[in-house]
Design a protein that fits this description.
Elements (H helix, E strand, L loop, with lengths): L7 H4 L11 H17 L6 E5 L5 H8 L3 E6 L2 H14 L4 E4 L11 E6 L10 H14 E12 L1 H6 L4 E5 L3 E9 L3 E10 L6 E8 L3 H10 L2 E7 L13 E8 L1
Parallel strand pairs: 1-2, 1-4, 2-3, 4-5
Antiparallel strand pairs: 5-11, 6-7, 7-8, 8-9, 10-11
Helix pairs in contact: 2-3, 3-4
The structure holds S-adenosylmethionine (SAM).
């Protein structure tokens, strides 16, 4: 099944999926520390966490003394980010909006986009518009770090059907791979009764070459690639791709 153009408006809801659930929240401090080592920011620097979701990384960045702005489309996740910040006794500036409509101009020392929060639009021009907004939001020489599904690995290891045990529910996944990306239908089956629900998402697949070209079109120059938070150089073995770029 193919994703609708606006699938991202109802996929990211706590009743269906929360990006900070389970292991993801526990991984956040180590991931944030990898990111901060690459961004080399001074205390007080302004950092944009684009598509911050429930703020699991944003709060870690704020704990290190950065002035963090978390931006996301989901009001529900932003409320969770605010609660996380309050619990950790740190300040977060939170803004709600669509990543294609960024209005910031030259105010950030760095920006991040983590956990495959990019490539969601059926039109490539919307991905480019997002990156142009990131570029505009950065000061000259500002860094941008993005973490995505690694296209090379995703195409090589593609499975049309698989399932996972998520604790309180099973997740049944059926996927379709197209020339442009991956359409994945997630069927959520609660273990203790309740109705099954399904949603389909789309993620445009980027490898090093395609991402480099797209970043360049937005005025961002790729500097380095890793195959995940372990810090190994990117290869087809890695399921994730991390790229550090600089605003030209
Ligand atoms: C996979 S989650 C990752 C969240 C967070 N970066 C993390 O690692 O926990 C993707 C995030 O993108 C947000 N999102 C989806 N579509 C968006 C859009 N068009 N504009 C802004 N945010 C969007 C979702 O609400 C969600 O928080």
């Amino acid at each position: 099944m193919r994703a609708r153009a606006d699938w991202h408006r109802d996929f990211f809801r706590n009743s269906f999926y929360n990006p900070a659930a389970g292991e993801a929240a526990r991984r956040a401090p180590a991931e944030a520390s990898f990111v901060l080592r690459r961004l080399k920011l001074k205390r007080g620097s302004a950092l944009l966490d684009l598509c911050c979701g429930p703020g699991r990384h944003a709060v870690e960045f704020a704990k290190k003394g950065l002035a963090v702005t978390g931006y996301d489309l989901s009001g529900e996740y932003l409320r969770e980010a605010a609660a996380r910040a309050k619990k950790a006794r740190v300040a977060l500036r939170l803004a709600r909006g669509d990543m294609r409509e960024l209005k910031f101009s030259g105010e950030f020392d760095a920006a991040v986009n983590l956990f495959t929060s990019f490539g969601y639009f059926l039109k490539f021009s919307d991905d480019l518009r997002t990156l142009k907004g990131v570029s505009r939001a950065l000061k000259p020489g500002g860094f941008f770090l993005i973490e995505l599904v690694n296209a090379e690995h995703a195409r090589k290891s593609f499975r049309p059907r698989w399932w996972d045990d998520m604790g309180d529910h099973f997740l049944l996944i059926s996927s379709e791979l197209t020339a442009d990306g991956l359409h994945e239908t997630w069927m959520r089956l609660p273990k203790r009764g309740g109705r099954a629900r399904a949603r389909t998402f789309f993620c445009r697949l980027y490898d090093r070459k395609r991402l480099s070209g797209t970043l360049a079109q937005a005025g961002l120059k790729p500097l380095k690639f890793w195959g995940g938070y372990g810090g190994a150089p990117l290869s087809a073995r890695h399921s994730s791709l991390i790229c550090l770029a600089i605003k030209k």
